[in-house]
Each structure stands twice: as C-alpha cells, then as structure tokens.
Amino acid sequence: MFVLHHSSLYSLGTEINFKARSFGKGAELTQCLFVLIGKNLILLALNFTERFSAKTHRDGANAYEKEMGGAFMTTTGIQVKDVSMAYTGKNGEPISALKNINLDIKEEEFISLLGPSGCGKTTLLRLIADLLQPTTGTVSILGKSPRETRLARKFGIVFQSPVLYDWRSVRRNICMPMEIMGIPRKTRTSRINEVLDLVGLRNFGTKYPFELSGGMQQRVGIARALALKPEILLMDEPFSALDEFTREKLNEDLLKIWSQTKKTIIFVTHNIPESVFLSDRVVVLSPHPGRVSAVVDIDLPRPRSASLREEPVFYEYVAKIRKSFEGV
Amino acid sequence: MKSKRKNWTDYTLPIAFGVMIILLWQCKVFHALLGLQTYQLPLPTDIVSALSQNFGKTLSDCIVTISGAMIGLVIGSCIGFIFAVIATWFPKWGYGSIILISAINAIPLVALSPIMNLWFKTGMGQRIGVVTIVCMAAMTFNSYSGLSSIKPFSLDLMQMTAANKWTVFTKLRIPNSLPYIFTALKINIATSIMAAIISEYFATSTSGLGFGIKDNLRKAEMAMGWGYIVVASIVGVILYCVIVLIEHQAIKWHPSQR
Question: What are phi and psi of A215, to 5 degrees?
C-alpha cells in the first residue's frame, strides 16, 4: 500500500523551493510565486493523501481481515495495533493526539489507562468504542472491528458525568438502553432488580435523578451499563467528579461488582492510587503526542479491600508509577 | 430535597395587594395622580355593571375570539415545532427553516391581518390565520433549543446502543425539549389572544372581543370597552394557569418545577 508520509512531502516542498532559487536572482518574483503555489499545492495534497491513505489503510485492513477469515487474528481480547490519531488544528496543521499505540488487553482483565490530561487516554477509549476512528492503525475486539462490536452492542460505557435522563426514574434510566436494544420486558425488569442490588440502590428505583447525590447518580450510570451485560465495560474517569471518600467507596464497590460479573474493564483515570487499587495492569500514557510510556503489572492479591491502601507494597506501586512520569 | 411549605400568607398577601390596587382605582387615586376623568378611565364598579348588563353578548364574543385564538395556537405551535424538527434533523441545511421563521416573525401584525383578510373569506379563518403565523416563531426558537441542547455524552450513549436517528429523537430529543415547549406555549397563550383581538380590528366580522373593544370605544361606551379588555385579560390569565398546571404535571423532573 502506498502511503505518502509528511516527511516526504516536506522534502518535496524544499525541493521545489530549491529549484525556484536556481532560476537566479533575476527571477525573484517568479520564485516567490512558485513557492507560494507550491506550498498551497503541498498543503492540499497533504490534506487529500492523509484522508485517502487513512481510508485505504482501514479498508485494506478490513479486507485483509475478511480474506484471512480471521485465521491469523486472535479472536480473544482486544488488540490495539499501531494506532495513531491526528486532529486537524485551527491553522490546518495536524495535531497528533496518539502515536503508535500498541496494546493487548486480555479478556476479563481490569486495565487502567493512566496519564495526565491531554495524554489521549480518553481518545484511546473512544477509538476502542468506535466513537472515534483512528487515522492509522487498527483495533480489533474479539476478532471484530470496533464498529461491528458497537453495532452488536457488546460495549457498556460510563462517562465522567452520569448522563442520566432527567425525565426518567432510576429504574427507567437503567431501562433505556435495554428498550432501544429490544430486550423483552420481563428480562428488563429482572435485570434492573439485579443491577440495582449490585450497586446498592435497591430502594431508590422510583426516585428521579435530581433526588440523588452525585455518587448515587454515578452508581445509576454504572448500573445502566451493567444491565446490558456487556462483554467489555468502558469507563471514562467515572469517579473524577466525586469527593475522595465517595471515590474510595465506589472503587471498592466496583471491584466487588467486577469479581461477580467478570467483565473486561478498561478504566480511564488520572488518579495513580485509584489505578493501582483497581487494576491488573496499568498502562501509563504520556502526552504530546500521546504514547504508551510504561505498562505496569499490579501483582496484588485479590479480593482487595480498603486496608490494601495502607500497605507498603501498595505505596511501592504508586511510587513506581509516579516515577515513570519523571523525565517525560 | 427541600420541601416547599405553603403558608397562608403565600396566597393572602398577593390577593390583598390586588384588592388594594382595585380599591385605590375605585377611590380615584389614579385619576388624581394622572389627571384623568372617569370617561378616560372608568371606575371598576362601572365596568362590572356594564359587563353584567351585556353578559350574553360578551360571553359569545369571548367564545368566538378565544376559540379562534386556541385553534390558531395549536396549528401555529405544531407548524413551529415541525420547523424546529426539520432544523434539528437536517443540520446541514435545516437551519434555513429557522431563518425563514425569523423572517415571518418580523411581519407586523397590522400588515398580516389585511393579508389574511384577503386569503380567507370568513372572519374565523382570518383570525386563525393571523394567530397561526404569530404563534410559530416562539415555538420554533424554543423547541429548537430544546431539541439541540442535550447533555454532553448523551448522544455517545445512544450511539453505544446503536440507536437510530428516530430513537434518538423520540427517546432523547423530544423529552428533552418538553420544558422548552411549555415555555413557548406560555408565551403563545398571551400572544394568541392579543393577535386574535388585533386581527378583529381589521376584519369584516362583527363579533369577537377585538370588534367589541373597537366598537364600544368608537361609540364612547368606555365602561363596556374596558369590560371587554378585562374579559380578555381574565381569560388570558386563566388559560395561562391551565398551561402551568399541565406543565407542572408533565415535567415534574425539571428544575423549574421544584
């Protein structure tokens, strides 16, 4: 596949510039014009090829996948391969949000994406969720593309804010995605009861969102995601808006829920102790451009309880991860 | 949640204030202040007695005007809402409908009424036509805000369940726009009555509140003219209260209703 890189286009630009110079001092005007036209042409070409190459690349990958019948692709877990994501900035220049991300996530793994703001951790999550498409590279989920997985409704997602529907009671909020998916009423009712028990809101089913505290609202958001019985649970800084006490309580609750349901959880956070407490593995991302700077295995026994936060080995992990940010 | 405790003073004080204003009016305090005669500002007792003498005529005029206003309100609000839906459903070109509505909104009532006179043969048709056009704008602007200003991430959430455009509309956008629709209806209640009355000034019909006001003021029947004005105001307040009651039942979840 032929992909024009920025660097090659850039050298092409200097070449044109150079050739224009060689016309001699008498042709300064021509040179200026030439450079001007050349620059614009390059910008245009860059823009076009970038779109084109990204498209062909993706199509190519999909075709490859189909051709091979998935024979060489792993059908377990989530693979992120050479994924890069670039936005077009205000002046038309490409801004690299993620660069060459490679990641293997096992099934039933609790993995955290950790990093400072602007490191692209949310972008990476949205790429996996098919809410964004990568500029280059592929993501495969149980051998399928993110789009297929999304359309097959295998994701559950929890956002930074609870995103509840104000006009629906807690029960009907949890019900909404299941209604859309066409799950029969009986199943819906039993699942709502189940997840309300899981998140400890059994007596709040008939309340409306405005009657709940921030922590309770976030629990409803989690319950709604769990009710779908998703194969993959994506959590985008779900507890970042909550106070420290509520956050720690919900961390413990989340682990309990996870041990009961055993989903693959991808958890985005900027809180180091939180990531250590929850995860099997912590993927440390660093910004400008977003890239994986370290992957830390958390070998702490499960089930984990609140007392773990007091143990020296916990601090060691926190310190180790904090250290990996140094020199970035 | 903070519960609102109703005190008896919550009701009595505003009523006492209103009664006091009417008493001051009756005692000619406003006449003294503004240098008016009773034929310029009739006394409340005169207005009431004039109204009770012509009760049957006033009631039938009232029914004519209000029914026209309400039909126009419903049609206009529906059309306005459809325009808002178009603007939301087709974001690329749909905003043109908003611009079209703002252009229509700029047509003055005094121009609209004679035009509608030409379009419709009957007084009722003309009345409904005017009210319809006047009621469109508030509904379009408000419900467009309601349909488009949805919470961050809620569209993403819909996408994750592979919801189609129709589902997003019925389950997310329309419920979200309900408070805005009620705001528009509250604006439109007063607007529709006003538009219906003004339209009657230019109409060929000889019934309706607007005709009553015009006719009585022309005949120097000031108390009766004022009687019609009072009736129009009272009906406006009653209909407004009806909408507020419906709103309170329909959108209990909204911050404005707590």
Answer: -65, -40
Contacts of A161 in chain B (CB under 8 A): 151-153
**Chain A touched by B157 (CB under 8 Å):** yes
Q: Which fold has domain B42-257?
A: MetI-like fold (1.10.3720)
Structure tokens belonging to residue A131: 């809410």
Q: What is the pTM of this model?
A: 0.76
Contact B175 A163 (CB under 8 A): no
Tabulate helix, strand, coil % of chain B (nearest 5).
Answer: 80, 0, 20
Class of domain A78-325 (CATH, top level)? alpha beta
- Alpha carbons A52 and A54: distance in angstroms, whole number: 5
Query: In degrees rounded to 5, what are phi and psi of residue A258?
Result: -65, -40
Residue indicated by tokens 């490409």: A94
Nearest Cα to Cα of residue A120 among A100, A146, A147, A145: A100
DSSP helix/strand/coil, A28:
helix
Distance CA A184, CA A317 (A): 46
pLDDT in tens, chain B (258 residues): 444 566 777 888 989 999 999 999 999 899 999 998 888 889 999 999 999 998 899 999 999 999 999 999 999 999 999 999 999 999 889 889 999 999 999 998 888 888 888 888 888 899 999 999 999 999 999 999 999 999 889 999 998 888 889 999 999 999 999 999 999 999 999 999 999 998 888 877 778 888 888 888 888 888 999 999 999 999 999 999 999 999 998 888 888 777
Closest CA in chain A for residue B3: A211
Nearest CA to B98 out of B139, B37, B159, B155 is that of B139
Instruction: From residue A175, give the alpha-carbon distance in Å to each of A12, A187, A204.
Output: 57, 10, 14
**Residues on chain A touching B155 (C-beta within 8 angstroms):** none
Instruction: Supply B50's token pair.
Output: 């004039």
The structural domains of chain B, with segments of one domain joined by +, span: 1-41, 42-257
Q: Which residues of chain B have a CB within 8 Å of the CB of A188?
A: none
